[in-house]
Amino acid sequence: MHSKKVLASLVCGLMLTANGVVADEIKQGGTLTVPIIGTGFVENFNPYTTKDLLHGVMFEPLLVFNNMTGKTEYRLAKSVEYSDDLKKVYVTLRDGLKWSDGSALTANDVAFSFNMTKDAAAFDQKGIWSGGNLVSVTASDAKTVVFELNEADSTFVWSLPAYHVVPEKVWSKVEDLTIFTNPDPIGSGPMTSVKYVNAQQMELCRNPHYYLENRPYLDCLTYRSYNDNSQIQPALMKGEIDWGSNFIADVENTFVKANPENHHFWYPANDAIHLYVNTKEAPFDNLQVRQALSVALDREAIVDIAAYGYPTANFNVGGIGELYSTHISKDVSEKYKELTQYNPEKAKALLDEAGLKDRNGDGFRDMPNGETVEFDIEVVNGWTDWIQVVQMVTEYYEEIGIKANVKTVDWAVYDKSLKDSEYKMSINWSMVATNPILAYQEYFSTSRIGKTWHAGHGINSPEIDKLIDSFGKTNEPAQQKEILDELQVFTAENLPFIPLFSNPTWFQYNSSKIAGWPSEDNPYVQPVWYDGGKRVLILNNLHLK
Question: Is the pLDDT of residue 18 over 50?
């Protein structure tokens, strides 16, 4: 029995674009060019080992939770239903789905794809298996997939979009999935045909069997490789790329002004950016030290000077930022607000109390054993705005006698350091999700340690695991609010990371050739390139002018 429809079925009807233009009036054709910061492209079409390159492009998600509109956008799935006891999830696929080679895409492929991530643990993106609650994934018929859970979990469906649906006939024959490059890719997304791949560029073109009629409107998507942010701006200016998702200094003067009719940007609030602290190492194991490192920072000045005023300073010490503004507890923010107010004198007093004093007169504080307190703050090479932010942070720390250094590292080093807790301090973002409980899961659930960038700080407890897990046992908004408030208190009292600001969603676009972009006037989705679900909604709307 699965009578409780937590998520309503898709209403099929006339497909309209977000601009309200009837699909058949739109001109087919054209190529969208987007920049990718990295070391170049190789012929690897495994969606699990190519970061987010292929999600929502070559591989269609089952559904997308649109945090901008609050709607659930069904994709390969037609509907998702929970059983009354919240222990079974029934995913019903759309009729007549096909792979890009024309063969049928069935519930067997979906069940296989999820079961595959049990065996290939590195692909278990959201820990649905390692978390221990998922019992089985089976196809009950050609169109229905049943996820059976040990315990009630109303949040389980939020994890589904992160997993890639792949063809069983190909992937079931692979011996080592982690090194599989999927050389002749078969996909379900809007762009599945590989036109060419070289180190500088890769072009993917229309899926001839895409499940939405007349979509995508565009013919192809070209990825261009760039070393860092500084190369993106001139490329946008010259019209080499249509869509930018990276920081650009003084965007009004350097980009918009040159062609106000076609050069645009829209920066809605995004994830909270923190300085993650490794609390397992002295002196960061001392709460007073972490508090001192927080009150030593003038967040507004950092935003204005280092980040050109685009982010929003985050004075909320409960772990979440403006993206989740409706969930921020005003009581918690008020009670702990001193922890984010710029107060260098208080920072010095806290460090004195923690026993960190300048013992040799060199201007820097030392540990009780005489060792100078010195640490690196890790940031990725080429992330120019964050490097400037970290530089400013080190200057504020120097004012209170703490020696911190900017350490720029390659992405692979950054990724490993955060996952394996090999950092002292690292600037990093937080989870953008359907609900902030998922951000707290990433921060504190012990099952996430070693798998995510956000859980390596060392503050965890069985009680907090239990509290986070209790969220999914209910569908009652009041109970869920209570849980979120408690987690905000826990974060404020332990300070495993120091809040800095809410990042803007970096989004610049050139409308000279292509229309259908999300904007402040037409905010149909948060314009995030690096999220396959949001990206596929945009790719389905873009079209030639």
Answer: no
